[in-house]
Amino acid sequence: MSSSTIRFSQLGLDSRITDKVAELGFQSPTDIQAQAIPIVLEGEDLLAGAQTGTGKTAAFGLPLIHSLLNSDPADNMPVNGVRALIVTPTRELAQQVFDNLLSYAEGLELKIVVAYGGVSLNPQKEKLRSGADILVATPGRLLDHAYNKTMDLRFSETVVFDEADRMLDMGFLPDIQRILKRLPEKRQTLLFSATFDKKVKTLAYRLLTTPKEIQIHAQNSAAESVSQILYPVDKKRKRELLSYLIGSRNWQQVLVFTKTKEGTDRLVKELKLDGIKAASINGDKSQGARQKALDDFKAGQVRALIATDVAARGLDISELECVVNFDMPFKAEDYIHRIGRTGRAGNSGLAVSLMSRDEEPMLAAIETLIDKRVPQEWLAGFEPGTEVITEDQPRSRRPSRSAEKRKMKAKLKIHQNRGKHRPR
Ligand code: ADP
Ligand code: MG
After folding, report:
1. Closest ligand to 217 CA?
2. 35 CB under 6 A from ligand 1?
3. Which of 163, 166, 167 shows the shortest CA–CA distance to 142?
4. Could you tell me which residue ranges the Helicase ATP-binding domain spans (predicted)?
5. How far is the CA of 415 from the centre of ligand 2 (A)?
6. N or C: which end of the chain has fewer CB within 10 A?
7. Minimum mean pLDDT range among 55-64, 209-218, 265-274, 390-399
């Protein structure tokens, strides 16, 4: 997974941590780990970009644990003080980062707490009342605890924004500003993501003090370990094509992204009719149902997990073989994050996009962002414009011969003139 020959033992980490890393089977640090760990250990601010699945969690998690183990909290820190804070955009990612940190710090004297919405406040309050070495949280719930004075952020030494560009976009920024106000001015701030754009970077630099910047791969690049393919297809036939692909390619574990919450549930029902075990994850579900769907999927009990972009960021599903964009993403950077759920930790992966005509502008935006063409192919039997007319369709809804002819002609013209819908 790593191209460097550096070893974990050379990075200045406590041997208790390097022992643990070896136990976890990490043979050598990834590039982002090799570069970020010494900087984080120095206490410097950092903006770090590296592709999906390259081990960014350990890149901030390991040195954070080291620093907390090897220093004492401020003398005047209140009992409910939090020494380090990690903020993530989704609950599932908070849980995952928390689980990762627990595995890195197992057996060490550190208190790590997780707090996110959708589950009851009281157990979290109980835990936080006596403070934490590390708190992993989503912004909304973090503010609930701050307003409730459950915990105190005034003495936090380090704050990490995972999926930093997402945390600083319009949706989250007001909450993030409220959180920043509660943190001390003098602190270490770390920003990690696979994508950064200019606007976010400008904003990011305002939060950072004489920061270091690391960019491992070309900015906003999709992981090379993921092979990408796009099938142009009529909108109405996407569902049929998805079932066909799952069946004919014998995919056992596939993560499918749709654009709406309702879309996830509809697709689950339809796949079930085709005999494919599916579950959905979206923002309307109870947190219990969300986590269960993800856990069942990870455990291989569900073959297709249908998700909105709530699952696009950060989730690490061991050896997930395939991601499908059932709908093209609204935001080009979400393409990078969605497909980055596969091809992680040195494994290869496949990303398939189903694109209807109206989604062509989204593809153009993606290709501009990643500065690459997404390979396209027409799939035999699913070529766009070849919708099958079945006998049970009412006559009135069947196109007349001349209408059909007109349609074909128009289509031919479009292809000749624009060639845009053609596989390249
Ligand atoms: P990112 O945040 O960059 O998308 P993660 O931190 O989620 O990536 O890590 C992706 C996967 O790689 C995880 O399963 C993690 O356990 C594994 N991993 C991390 N660091 C290493 C390493 N040095 N060697 C092998 N596997 C690693
Ligand atoms: Mg991550």
Report:
1. 1
2. no
3. 167
4. 37-214
5. 41
6. C
7. 390-399
